[in-house]
């Protein structure tokens, strides 16, 4: 459980670096499951597995695997991690929590690409309102050198900037220069941009609000940087059709526009304040 101070800090800043949440055994089990998934030997397929990096033509790689939980039981169990789900419920302020989707992002050793600055919810216009909280868990030690996350403090209060990224790569010849290069008109008057990097040990969690600006630098180290993000939504989250906007997991939605989003592919992990079993 989180303290009142931790919840207040999240509401103020839009993120919370909680630190260790998994045991070394749980972390190792997820790493093994990831290795099987990458080798194509998982019992089932994930939703997608692709290189989403900026600068692919320059050799950068960020392997994104969406819905690891469809491929591997260990990742399905991870969705229901009691400590994480309880903390998410506190941060959102809800007694019903469901999973929108999960995603692995691995920045491989030496060639791991940058994560350019973005907010999550503009990628998810088909679910409303923007009350989701993500739990980002590192499966290896993550620091600035191998591409840990960075957050812009308080930016979840700045409103959504549809489809855009707040920063760009400012110097393509230098892979370490990954931003920020802000669009000044997106920063509300009186606010300033304060970037705070979020190093965590393997098995540690960083929470962020779905409107918080975040990004991560390249990985030029010899250490990979795998991390599993689970995007959790409160029970009141609705499916809304957005003409012209499709989402990768939309084909799994069985409810009607305007209804609460639930179903087999959007597991309910807490109901009436009780964390459920997988
Ligand atoms: O793992 C990363 O570098 C980016 C993850 C991310 O953007 C997210 O979880 O919302």
UniProtKB/TrEMBL annotation:
It holds the Pfam family PhyH. GO terms for molecular function: 2-oxoglutarate-dependent dioxygenase activity; iron ion binding. Gene3D superfamilies: q2cbj1_9rhob like domain. Coiled coil: none annotated. Keywords: Dioxygenase, Oxidoreductase. It comes from the Bacteria. This is Ectoine hydroxylase-related dioxygenase (Phytanoyl-CoA dioxygenase family). It comes from Armatimonas rosea.
